[in-house]
């Protein structure tokens, strides 16, 4: 089971490290290894949240997530994305951006640093919306009940999460962006840039999550009709029609996963520049880390870990909220990647141990956690 799930990750790790040795010697080997660990530590919460969504897909779409999805994650976000943001922010062509990445690494790193406010605003708003929609939803299972109960009541107010997100964006733009540190000591007003990028992140979330939710609801309706048709078929002996909405629903959930992964990867890509400004080593290291994150996602689904440890999803979403705040703060202030990674690890570890204690109490009292609770938890992502 372990080899089947992580086999591709092991293979990519071996190939990536060998390529690093040929490209940059043992120094390159060390840099790629460090970047791989950095990506895994920063994206563990991503795997937990992804698992809550991926468990709704069948085996075919799980394979798509591990194949085509990996190509998008590794080559799109870890290789192409840094080049694209440089090209857009510096108003140069993609070919020129690639030339800078290979031949003038210091200037390339500076251009990426200059583009950070817009990246942080976009990613921060997208992740903030995920967190707000989670905590404002009334759930049967509550981890921090003292906090989640009143928030669930507030969540009954329509569009509350959008309003709060816009207020946070406005405050961030008026405080952090006004004095965003740029160009080695010169302060530049990035208010307009942050506002536009943040609104773009909010719109992206609303579109992708809205389409995903719409088709997921359609899928549930079709599944109910299929069950009714099966019961009718048993009585009449007729064939049961196939569910035609499954493909569309799975496609938009897959799209949602890719955008979610892209938002999670922002901190990893930016943080990688603290270790190296070599785009090849960066792509190798972050690509290896991305493979393990995806394999871990599938492992959590197949092992039913989210059903057994019911607070894991809560911890991951709180980590998302923390990461969203950190991204917005980094518009002006630098926060070390170790702190970013530790916040997510601590919150998820806390939720894991809380789940273990809950299971022990339930076992001691002779209670069954029940499938209804599992369904409730799985609907939270």
Automatic annotation (TrEMBL):
It comes from the Bacteria. InterPro entries: DUF475. This is DUF475 domain-containing protein. It comes from Streptomyces yatensis. The lineage of its organism: Bacteria, Bacillati, Actinomycetota, Actinomycetes, Kitasatosporales. Residues 212-239 form a coiled coil. The keyword Transmembrane applies. The chain crosses the membrane at residues 7-26, 32-53, 65-90, 115-136, 157-174, 194-215, 240-257, 269-294, 315-333, 339-356. NCBIfam families: PRK14013.1-3, PRK14013.2-5. The keyword Transmembrane helix applies. Keywords: Coiled coil, Membrane, Transmembrane, Transmembrane helix.
């Amino acid at each position: 089971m372990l080899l089947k799930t992580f086999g591709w990750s092991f293979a990519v790790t071996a190939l990536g490290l060998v390529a690093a040795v040929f490209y940059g010697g043992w120094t390159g080997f060390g840099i790629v290894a460090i970047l791989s660990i950095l990506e895994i530590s920063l994206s563990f919460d991503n795997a937990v949240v992804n698992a809550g969504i991926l468990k709704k897909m069948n085996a075919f779409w799980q394979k798509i997530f591990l194949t085509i999805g990996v190509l998008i994650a590794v080559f799109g976000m870890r290789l192409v994305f840094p080049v694209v943001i440089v090209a857009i922010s510096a108003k140069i062509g993609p070919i020129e951006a690639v030339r800078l990445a290979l031949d003038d690494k210091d200037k390339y790193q500076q251009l990426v640093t200059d583009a950070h406010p817009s990246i942080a605003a976009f990613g921060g708003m997208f992740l903030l919306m995920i967190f707000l929609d989670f905590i404002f939803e009334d759930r049967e299972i509550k981890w921090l009940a003292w906090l989640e109960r009143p928030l669930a009541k507030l969540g009954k107010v329509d569009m509350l999460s959008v309003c709060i997100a816009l207020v946070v964006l406005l405050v961030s733009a008026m405080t952090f962006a006004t004095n965003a540190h740029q160009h080695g000591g010169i302060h530049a007003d990035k208010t307009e840039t942050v506002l536009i990028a943040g609104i773009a992140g909010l719109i992206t979330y609303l579109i992708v999550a809205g389409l995903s939710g719409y088709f997921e609801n359609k899928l549930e309706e079709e599944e109910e009709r299929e069950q009714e048709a099966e019961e009718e078929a048993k009585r009449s002996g007729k064939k049961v029609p196939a569910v035609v909405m499954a493909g569309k629903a799975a496609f938009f959930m897959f799209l949602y996963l890719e955008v979610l992964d892209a938002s999670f990867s922002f901190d990893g890509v930016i943080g990688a520049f603290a270790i190296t400004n070599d785009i090849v080593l960066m792509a190798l290291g972050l690509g290896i880390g991305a493979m393990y994150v995806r394999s871990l996602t599938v492992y959590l689904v197949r092992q039913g870990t989210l059903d057994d440890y019911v607070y894991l999803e809560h911890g991951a979403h709180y980590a998302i909220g923390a990461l969203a705040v950190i991204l917005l703060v980094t518009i002006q202030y630098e926060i070390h990647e170790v702190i970013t990674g530790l916040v997510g690890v601590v919150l998820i570890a806390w939720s894991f141990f809380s789940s273990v204690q809950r299971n022990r109490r339930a076992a001691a009292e002779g209670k069954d956690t029940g499938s209804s609770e599992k369904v409730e938890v799985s609907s939270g992502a």
